[in-house]
Amino acid sequence: MNDSKIARINELYKKSKAEGLTEAEREEQAILRQEFVASVRKNLKSQLDNIDIQNADGSVENLGEKYGNKSAN
C-alpha cells in the first residue's frame, strides 16, 4: 500500500464527513480499505513469523516455523 492510496483513503473519509460520497466513491473507498487491511495483516503476519523465543532449556524456536509459516496467503 503506497502513500498515494492512503492519502486517497483519507480524502474520501473527509469528503464523506463533509458532503457525502457518490456511489462510485463509496465503492472506491471500500476497495481501498480492503487493500489497506490486507496490507496490515500481511505485514503483521510477516513480523510475527520472524519472532524467535528462547525456551527454558536454552533452545531457540522460530514462531513462524513452529506454527506453519504459511506465507502463501
TrEMBL record:
Subcellular compartments: Cytoplasm
Classification via InterPro entries: DUF896
Main location (coarse class): cytoplasm
Source organism, top-level taxon: Bacteria
Entry annotated with the keyword Cytoplasm: yes
Keywords: Cytoplasm
Gene3D superfamilies reported for this sequence: Helix hairpin bin
Entry similarity comment: Belongs to the UPF0291 family.
Protein name: UPF0291 protein H8Z76_03755
